[in-house]
Amino acid sequence: MELVLALAIGALVASGVWLVMRPRSFQVIVGLCLLSYGVNLFIFSMGRLRTAAAPILDRGGEIDPAAYTDPIPQALVLTAIVIGFATTALFLVVLLASRGFSGTDHVDGKERDQ
Amino acid sequence: MTPEHLITAPILIPLVAGAIMLFYEDRQRRVKFVISLTACVAMFVIALELLIRSKGPSGGSQIGLYLLGDWPTPFGINLVLDRLSALMLVLSSALAIPALAYSYAGWHSRGQHFHSLFMFQLMGVNGAFLTGDLFNLFVFFEIMLAASYGLLLHGSGPERVRAGMQYIVMNLVASLFFLIGVSLIYGVAGTLNMADLAQKMPYLSGEDRPMIHAAMALLGIVFLVKAASWPLGMWLPSTYQSASPPAAAIFAILTKVGVYIILRLGFLAFAPGSGISAGFGAEVVLMGGLASMTFGTLGMLGSQSVGRMAGFSVLISSGTMLAVTGLALMGGGVQMLAGALYYMTVSTLGIAALFLLVELVDRGQGTIAAMLALSADLYGAPEDEPEETQRGITVPATMTVLSLCFAALAVLLAGLPPLGGFLGKVMMLSGMLQGGQGGSVASWIFMALLIVSGLATLIALLRIGVQTFWTSSEESGPNVLAIELAPIVALTGLVVLLTWEARPVMRYMEATASALHRPGVYIDGVLSAARTFDMKETVE
């Protein structure tokens, strides 16, 4: 499982980095999304990989902490997803505004060979 | 022991004020202005009160702690007030009032929700200064950045949108680095509380230490981006130049947020004499600071407009702070850091005033009017364009007042006597020569750069000043409203006041710097604090 997760994070981040370096604003935003997926998976893995373990304690009774997974990284991921979603949406608006002003989707607002 | 609810006020006041204003229609700008001005003044008063509290009864240093949700410290999230954060709170609210007042002259009507964005910006900044928890720091950072995106785009226009897009991409990528760093720290140390982390630092095992260092380095990249250290600060001059003046004035504090966190985390985790990791990353911060001072100096000489110069002076100011932080982390001494904190305070105020001044100076030359006409052309003219020139009181002898303020700011930023910039620089240099880093090569380079950057600032600003104020023109100067002039005069006055009252201010800075050098006070203050609810539970 570790290998699969590591490969997934690696693939997401690698393609994200490549796309962020591209000159078109749409590629940049897709790249940012992929990067944030990779990072979210990474945060998740920082709570150690466990299968079939709940993050939320049962009510009452004796609690064995070893039977549960760490809830904090999951809470962090949730926050990171929400914030990432909001900022990406905002970036999308700016991207459209830039397209409207400059008539091109180049990140500099003008084509290089014009 | 009663909980110090006042500590939450710098976050809650702008949150509530900003949220309330969302319910008002955007045309009711006067009401919104009154609400946000009240909020800013309240924040300023509370920040001053917190500043006094942070001195403690004996004039030493007292840690104020607020447990959100009343969970005990390593588990719950908390707000921590110490001398440094109180100082930054005062600085941010002292910048907010003039910037807000300036916007009343017209800028707040050139787009939507200016006041709410302004409030949320302050909320993020104040939260970043107060939080004692790394993940909460991320959240407040994002609030601050999201609001700054909105403020940067305020007024719209192609130039702002282009600069805004690059600024947003830069910061989104930096936020991802932030997340990686924070989660690595959690994965290795099992805590996100800064004080708890600092306490655990000396006891890390051999294989964990490189991981923590890597995580801290990733976080360092984020804060260096925010502090606009070279080569991560290329975005800054064009971004700040294209922002509207009130937004640019409040942005002057944003780079200082980066500097603040580097100071805070650096001295908590890597303070001189704190074990194996002491001084980690200090060279990078020092080199980054020196490089951005160089870059700022060259940019200052090369720029053609005051706006761009103001942007580069931000680079010089934060570069100086970073270099001193690096030297201090290597054991440079309390005195030098105290001088740097003083310099940071006065230069931030001065730069904010310069950003406000830029527009008024340019207005006399008609460039802003032309630019506005252009943006109105593209964006569609604002539906209710008021008769700008007839509202408010126009000031006689505008040019005289403006040129006096400009001269004072130039003297301040160049670090000439008699104003505060000079005092700060002298303190830094004398502290450095007496302190532990006196003879090193880096300290000589820093000394040279500090003096050369002052000279370059002076040359550049004088050149612009001569062109602007000493030309004989038939016009009687720009039409400037009292509400536009007052913030600039107030900021300049504040700088003069800080110079006049240098002794008590410097004493505060020295105690702040020495408190930073004793992270044990902060750590004990946070970790040993009792929960406020314990007593009640035993009664029940």
Outline:
The complex is a heterodimer of chains A (114) and B (540). Chain A is mostly helical. Chain A has helices spanning 2-20, 25-45, 71-102.
Polypeptide structure, described:
The complex is a heterodimer of chains A (114) and B (540). Chain A is mostly helical. Chain A has one domain (2-51, 70-102). Chain A contains three helices and no strands. The longest helix of chain A has 32 residues, at 71-102. Chain A is elongated, with a radius of gyration of 20 Å. The relative contact order of chain A is 0.14. The model of chain A has no long low-confidence stretch (mean pLDDT 86). Chain B is mainly α and 540 residues long. Chain B has one domain. Helix content of chain B is 71%, strand content 2%. Chain B has 22 helices and two strands. A two-stranded antiparallel ribbon of chain B has the order 1-2. The longest helix of chain B is centred in the first third of the chain and has 32 residues, at 158-189. Mean pLDDT of chain B is 83; it is low at 367-391 and 535-540. Classes of the chains: A mainly alpha (114), B mainly alpha (540).
Task: Estimate nothing, just give the exact number of structural domains of chain B.
Answer: 1
Radius of gyration of chain A: 20 Å
Helical content band of chain A: 55-70%
| Total of helices of chain B | 22
| Category from helices, strands and their pairing of chain B | mainly alpha
Main beta-sheet strand count, sense and barrel state of chain B: 2 strands, antiparallel
What are the low-pLDDT stretches of chain A, counting only 5+ consecutive residues below 50?
Answer: none
Uncertain residue segments of chain B: 367-391, 535-540
What is the domain total for the residues of chain A?
1
Total strands of chain A: the figure is 0
Structural class of chain A: mainly alpha
Number of strands of chain B: 2
Cα gyration radius of chain B (Å) = 23 Å
Mean pLDDT of chain B: 83
